[in-house]
């Protein structure tokens, strides 16, 4: 590695980055959430990095890196490996600065992400089945073509750019005593911790990883958590964290929490319903950790970074519906009944009495353990609140029907 990449940035580097990128990235809102504060019994502040032009904080580091290239390096062009926010950040600011950009993405990258990156003027190369394959090929192309490699996190200039987010947070709310920051490769929390601890050595910096990807916790704390699986927080689903970032985190970060998938889903849904803001799973991980264990944050002044908002609309729809199921407003009931005229009418009458709307009805006569004269009527329904569905279930059972309620987890 060259010196700018392998050297740990200082608070002066972060302040210089803030000056360098000023006016070219959004100084995103830092807002107090009254409802979330009441839920946690703490002062909760949200940094809306999902409102950057490319919907993620990655622009800060990418721009800081690109602005420090020499004229000769700019002519050669840059290359990066990414299937997400880093790709769009490098592509967008590369085009603004007139720098040729090549992005290597795994072949399985969703078409929408490929087209979004191409729309920013980058040349996209699809290679390999996984990110590791794309990364290795990007390093090959770097050597063959003389490109400058822009690492997504393990680079001092990238880390310094990310740290500008913390400068803005503490300038806006100097009384913050706790920062909760998502961890993938570790670039964001490294910059955040350097900046925050330099300004206020007593501030607590807490990292958050998806429970399925405890890679940084493993290397920093010596744990042996299993890594892998489908996570909503794919933006922080990193198997091998950075070398520079792990050293900074070991030195500057107070602890690393793990957050379960259902808690990430809950945080994404709450941000839509309460803050009217779309945040991807990785971006909501910090809030998810706060909500999962509120007693650890009670009485504090807490800031967390909503670090990205690039979530597939179909996936977001699934998350929102699943949240309605968990809070009891949507239910799927399996109702055993005699297979005879009037049975369905008797059941639907109870729905009407309780003010519960029927979304979908299915009869199961063959694949059931009930006697041949019976049937299972499966009903998906929605109500104004969970009490209405609880009342419905009781009335159906009082009327002699056997009712089973499907659960998510």
From TrEMBL:
Belongs to the serine/threonine dehydratase family. Its EC number is 4.3.1.19. Keywords: Lyase, Pyridoxal phosphate. It is an enzyme of class 4 (lyase). This is Threonine ammonia-lyase. Gene3D superfamilies: 3.30.70.260, 3.40.50.1100. It catalyses: L-serine = pyruvate + NH4(+). It holds the Pfam family PALP. InterPro entries: ACT_dom, ACT_ThrD-II-like, Ser/Thr_Dehydratase, Thr_deHydtase_catblc, TrpB-like_PALP, TrpB-like_PALP_sf. Residues 332-409 form the ACT domain. Transmembrane segments: none annotated.
């Amino acid at each position: 590695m060259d010196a700018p990449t392998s050297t740990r940035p200082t608070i002066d580097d972060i302040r210089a980055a803030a000056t360098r990128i000023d006016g070219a990235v959004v100084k995103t809102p830092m807002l107090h959430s009254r409802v979330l504060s009441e839920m946690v019994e703490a002062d909760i502040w949200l940094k809306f990095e999902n409102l950057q032009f490319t919907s993620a904080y990655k622009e800060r580091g990418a721009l800081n890196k690109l602005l420090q290239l020499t004229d000769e390096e700019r002519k050669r062009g840059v290359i990066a490996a990414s299937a997400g926010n880093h790709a769009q950040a490098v592509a967008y600011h590369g085009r603004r600065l007139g720098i040729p950009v090549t992005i290597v993405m795994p072949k399985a990258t969703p078409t929408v992400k490929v087209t979004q990156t191409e729309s920013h003027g980058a040349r996209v190369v699809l290679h390999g089945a996984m990110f590791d394959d794309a990364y290795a090929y990007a390093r090959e192309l770097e050597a063959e073509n003389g490109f400058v490699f822009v690492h997504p996190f393990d680079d001092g200039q990238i880390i310094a750019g990310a740290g500008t987010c913390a400068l803005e947070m503490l300038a806006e709310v100097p009384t913050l005593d706790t920062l909760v920051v998502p961890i993938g490769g570790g670039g964001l929390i490294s910059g955040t911790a350097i900046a925050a601890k330099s300004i206020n050595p007593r501030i607590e910096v807490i990292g958050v990883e998806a429970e399925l990807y405890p890679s940084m916790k493993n290397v920093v704390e010596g744990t042996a958590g299993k890594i892998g699986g489908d996570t909503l927080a794919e933006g922080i689903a990193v198997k091998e964290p950075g070398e520079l970032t792990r050293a900074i985190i070991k030195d500057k970060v107070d602890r690393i929490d793990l957050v379960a998938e259902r808690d990430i889903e809950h945080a994404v849904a709450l941000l839509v319903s309460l803050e009217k803001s779309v945040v991807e799973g990785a971006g909501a991980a910090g809030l998810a950790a706060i909500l999962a264990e509120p007693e650890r944050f009670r009485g504090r002044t807490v800031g967390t970074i909503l670090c990205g908002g690039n979530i597939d609309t179909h996936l977001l729809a699934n998350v929102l519906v699943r949240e309605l199921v968990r809070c009891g407003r949507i239910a799927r009931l399996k109702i055993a009944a005699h297979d005879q005229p009037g049975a369905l009418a008797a059941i639907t009458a109870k729905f009407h009495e309780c003010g519960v709307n029927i979304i979908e009805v299915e009869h199961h006569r063959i694949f059931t353990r009930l006697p041949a004269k019976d049937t299972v009527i499966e009903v998906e329904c929605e109500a104004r609140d969970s009490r209405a569905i609880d009342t419905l279930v009781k009335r159906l059972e009082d009327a002699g029907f056997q009712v089973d309620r499907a659960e998510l987890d």
